[in-house]
Task: inverse folding
């Protein structure tokens, strides 16, 4: 939920209004809100428009002439939310370690441009083709290798240069930008509904820059097909030391033929057949079982004026995060791929994210007639800045990312073996919840530190729901107030009514999902939440009539650094 920052300069001695005027009732009334605010500002020289043409919330609020107390603002806060915009490159700062107040030892601020153009998707004349990396031809690999070589050879201050491109990722994740319109809050495009659209734009321009360098308008990035057993190893093209696609800063134990582990915890502890089977279950959960609602796939809403890290979607916190850490060096900071500040320096990163981008397209197709995208203007109108293939700084919008074909590229078609991989229960009809010694959720249990397994009984507000109820609303396990240090890799798994209790076996219906986080350099405590779909899981365990479920939180990495605020079950559509 959108909340105003506590340190916001909005606190005034204004009279307390118990009922906000109707202009704050709904975000859709923003236009009317704007008019009223402009009237309110008459005679003021202050502009309501920021340099990006966005409505500046602070000016609005200050311009309200003290109509509001902070308490009112918080209670009606979501109506104030405005789409994330910008950022302002002139105000990029290297960033501070928020724990130590020391400046970071990495500077990833981009070159500043005098002109920003609103980007229009060019008409598609030729489709770019994105092949599966493990199926790519020698000819394609040679072309790609050449393009990256040319990118590395561009002048260091050219925004299309390889390191400059790597820094684009660093700057948008390492808390180097203030939010435009709420400068006391930072921009973080991960762990929220910006994850898919932002990375789609990032790859889009990266691909166009490479295509331009080799003069090939059909060039498309390869995707690392890690959701298919045939692609579950580092793609060979990245491993040849003489190639421009090589990076020395990788976990040397994970070079081919090691199987990629989509549930990687920092140590590869199970054998290959179990890894592959786990991987397919992870994919099924992330793409089918746990994503009945938009928020669960995309991540939680995050706007100007709201705190970063509201909550990651399934793929982001699961397979995506696991492979970042699996590829990077086996050190606490995990360069290059295992840390958000450095992952753009790893050519394999772009291959990894091209698959994430492909999964977005597949998920939208799987939705059929169900809603595929938020219709919320706070999402559709959100904007980011990138340098395009002509080194022109452009402003792009989320609303232009919804259809990859309109963006001029498509993916090679390959099998999706996880699609029919619905896991089966190990302990059917177990009524585990009635025989366990685990305590019920109450205020004495949370907040709980995850330095050991936490088992708790969670009450279900509704039971024996009809088919129709389940179609209308998904039952969701919400784990909230997850507090972590953002500079560390952390991970925990969640099991429901699990009597098998082997934490390395994930190919079973009892496995509900995970939380994990790729570290970034800027160490700060962040508070986030996850939601795990239960409707299908409860069906598979045959416990839909039970009043409680037994939830096990199993720390897998950095448990000492994870605190859980609470657990509950909700229903959402
Ligand atoms: Cu922006 Cu996979 O990270």
Result:
């Amino acid at each position: 939920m959108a909340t105003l920052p506590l340190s916001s300069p909005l606190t005034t001695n204004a009279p307390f209004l118990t009922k906000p005027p109707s202009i704050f009732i709904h975000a859709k009334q923003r236009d009317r809100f704007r008019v009223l605010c402009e009237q309110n500002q008459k005679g003021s020289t202050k502009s309501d428009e920021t340099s990006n043409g966005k409505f500046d919330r602070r000016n609005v609020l200050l311009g309200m002439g003290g109509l509001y107390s902070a308490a009112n603002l918080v209670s009606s806060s979501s109506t104030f939310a405005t789409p994330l915009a910008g950022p302002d490159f002139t105000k990029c700062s290297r960033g501070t370690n928020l724990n130590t107040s020391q400046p970071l030892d990495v500077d990833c601020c981009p070159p500043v441009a005098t002109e920003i153009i609103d980007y229009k998707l060019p008409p598609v004349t030729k489709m770019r083709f994105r092949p599966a990396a493990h199926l790519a031809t020698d000819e394609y690999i040679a072309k790609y290798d050449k393009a990256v070589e040319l990118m590395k050879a561009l002048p260091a201050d050219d925004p299309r240069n390889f390191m400059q491109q790597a820094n684009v990722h660093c700057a948008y994740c390492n808390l180097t930008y203030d939010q435009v319109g709420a400068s006391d809050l930072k921009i973080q495009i991960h762990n929220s509904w910006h994850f898919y659209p932002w990375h789609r734009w990032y790859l889009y321009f990266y691909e166009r820059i490479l295509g331009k360098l080799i003069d090939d308008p059909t060039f498309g990035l390869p995707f690392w097909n890690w959701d298919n057993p045939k692609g579950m190893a580092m793609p060979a093209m990245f491993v040849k030391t003489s190639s421009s696609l090589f990076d020395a800063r990788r976990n040397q134990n994970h070079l081919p033929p090691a199987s990629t582990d989509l549930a990687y915890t920092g140590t590869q502890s199970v054998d290959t057949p179990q890894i592959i089977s786990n991987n397919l279950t992870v994919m099924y959960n992330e793409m089918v079982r746990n994503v009945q609602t938009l928020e669960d796939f995309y991540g939680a809403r995050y706007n100007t004026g709201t705190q970063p890290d509201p909550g990651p979607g399934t793929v982001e916190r699961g397979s995506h995060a696991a492979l970042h850490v699996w590829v990077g060096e086996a050190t606490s900071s995990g360069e290059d791929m295992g840390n958000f500040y450095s992952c753009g320096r790893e050519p394999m990163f772009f291959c990894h994210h091209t698959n994430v981008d492909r999964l977005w397209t597949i998920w939208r197709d799987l939705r059929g007639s169900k809603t595929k995208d938020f219709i919320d203007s706070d999402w559709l109108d959100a904007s980011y800045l990138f340098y395009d293939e002509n080194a022109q700084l452009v402003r792009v919008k989320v609303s232009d990312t919804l259809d990859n074909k309109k963006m001029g590229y498509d993916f090679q078609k390959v099998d999706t073996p996880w699609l029919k991989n619905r896991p089966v229960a190990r302990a059917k009809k177990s009524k585990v919840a009635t025989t366990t010694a685990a305590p019920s959720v109450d205020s004495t249990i949370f907040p709980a530190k995850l330095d050991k397994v936490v088992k708790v009984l969670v009450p279900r507000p509704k039971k024996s729901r009809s088919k129709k109820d389940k179609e209308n609303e998904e039952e969701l396990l919400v784990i909230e107030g997850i507090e972590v240090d953002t500079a560390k890799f952390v991970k925990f798994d969640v099991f429901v009514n699990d009597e098998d209790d082997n934490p390395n076996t994930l190919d079973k219906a009892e496995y509900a999902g995970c939380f994990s986080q790729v570290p970034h350099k800027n160490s700060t405590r962040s508070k986030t939440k996850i939601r795990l779909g239960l409707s299908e899981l409860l069906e598979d365990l045959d416990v839909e009539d039970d009043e409680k479920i037994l939830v096990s939180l199993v720390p897998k990495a950095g448990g000492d650094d994870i605190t859980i605020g609470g657990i509950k079950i909700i229903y959402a559509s």
